[in-house]
Specification:
253 residues, alpha+beta, OB fold (Dihydrolipoamide Acetyltransferase, E2P), five-stranded mixed barrel, three-stranded antiparallel beta sheet, 8 strands, binds zinc ion
Length: 253
């Protein structure tokens, strides 16, 4: 048996899993206390495993973990929230995969982020209860960006620092991380026009509590533009991160 100081407890959401060896699974989880962890779940592919039903994808489980040489090992696991709908409804499953993938890509191992853990847990609840996940997903994306240090500027021009006028020809620039006034946006390569309706929704997502965001009524065009802008910005941030990691690796060689 492992000694006491080699054991720790944590609540964790299962982000991804892969088969390992004969009967084991390697899990990537996001925990409240320690951030992202990779943990070995031994024997969970055996039909007799008591742990198996407690470490399914997207579940929130309370875990007792033993420190190991390569990977820490899940010694016990007990469901806190099963989020059953997320595994039984195909649309919900694909959205849950998307959330899990974002958290995985935006975080490093052993880097705790309690607000992000709480955001993910809350979003999984909302996702399992809604038939229109649009606002749930956009709210998550916006707050994920804020909680990982990529909050976009939406009030001021990032070039002249002037407050934006309520007009339809302000701009958004991915590399600048925010909005530009018409004067500076027009001359900035790759800046995209951002209509006022879209800007207002993004600000609302950024500043208002979920209870108010949930009541938003949007036109199909605005929905499409809000989704495209957030996805474009997230993709840009991730690609830049990956490139900087590649760059560091090359330098080290
Ligand atoms: Zn400006």
């Amino acid at each position: 048996m492992p000694t006491k100081d080699r054991l720790y407890r944590t609540d964790a959401i299962i982000l991804r899993r892969s088969d390992f060896g004969e009967a084991d699974r390697l899990l990537t989880v996001f925990s409240s206390e320690f951030g992202k962890l990779r943990l070995l779940a031994k024997g969970v592919r055996k039909t007799t495993s008591r742990k198996a039903g407690h470490v399914e994808l997207f579940m929130l489980s309370h875990m007792l973990v033993a420190k190991g040489r390569t990977w820490d090992i899940i010694s016990q696991a007990e469901i806190v929230e099963a989020y059953r709908d997320l595994r039984e409804d195909l649309d919900k499953t694909s959205h849950a995969y998307y959330l899990a993938e974002l958290v995985d890509r935006f975080t490093e191992e052993h880097d705790p982020n309690v607000p992000l853990f709480e955001l993910l847990a809350l979003t999984l609840v909302q996702l399992s209860h809604t038939d229109d996940p649009f606002l749930v997903l956009r709210y998550f994306e916006m707050h994920l960006l804020s909680l990982t240090g990529f909050q976009p500027q939406l009030r001021f021009c990032v070039a002249c620092q002037e407050a934006l006028e309520p007009v339809d020809n302000n701009y958004f620039h991915f590399a600048d991380g925010g909005t530009l006034c018409p004067t500076h946006g027009e001359v900035r390569a790759h800046a995209e026009v951002i209509p006022l309706a879209v800007l207002k929704v993004l600000r609302y997502l950024q500043t208002q509590p979920w209870e108010k965001v949930a009541g938003l009524q949007l036109t199909p065009a605005t929905r499409q533009q809000v989704e495209a802008l957030l996805l474009g910005y997230i993709t840009f941030v991730l690609e830049r991160q990956l490139k900087s990691v590649d760059f560091l690796r090359k330098l080290r060689r």
